[in-house]
Design goal:
Blueprint: E1 4-5, H1 16-31, E2 39-42, E3 48-51, H2 54-59, H3 64-71, H4 74-83, E4 89-92, E5 99-107, E6 113-121, E7 126-133
Helix pairs in contact: 1-3
């Protein structure tokens, strides 16, 4: 899997609140474009919508330290979703029939590797941005 080279850098900050404030600003900027559920258009999926609200629900299931680690890559993840043309690794969800997980690899502008996971529901053909995380 070839990683996408992002032009944006990681979100800077020392505390979780500081990083979350910057990530929420980026989220609200994307959400202001529509009256309904916020989304970004993806080049890889032929300009299909990728809905970004589930990310925050998924993020809040993790401990605060892990949330901070993941949120640092939020700006890079949005850029990857919008512009990436690289092939992801696609797997069937073992727990639920009819769902696919696409995992994209990316490099931040500092050269640090991260992964972005997108869930696709086959029945409705909707895609959801689930998670962004660096490797262990």
């Amino acid at each position: 899997m070839k990683p996408y080279q992002a032009k944006t850098s990681k979100l800077a900050g020392t505390s979780y609140i500081e990083i979350e404030r910057k990530a929420r600003y980026l989220h609200n900027k994307a959400a202001a474009r529509t009256k309904r559920s916020p989304y970004v258009r993806s080049t890889y999926f032929n300009k299909d919508k990728i809905f970004i609200t589930i990310f925050w629900e998924h993020l809040n299931q993790h401990p605060r330290r892990d949330r901070k680690r993941r949120l640092r890559y939020y700006a890079c993840a949005l850029e990857l979703l919008r512009n990436a043309k690289v092939e992801p690794v696609t797997k069937e969800n073992p727990n639920k029939y009819g769902e696919l997980f696409h995992r994209f690899a990316g490099l931040s502008s500092e050269g640090e590797l991260f992964y972005v996971q997108v869930k696709e529901v086959r029945r409705t053909d909707r895609k959801y941005f689930m998670s962004v995380f660096p490797p262990n």
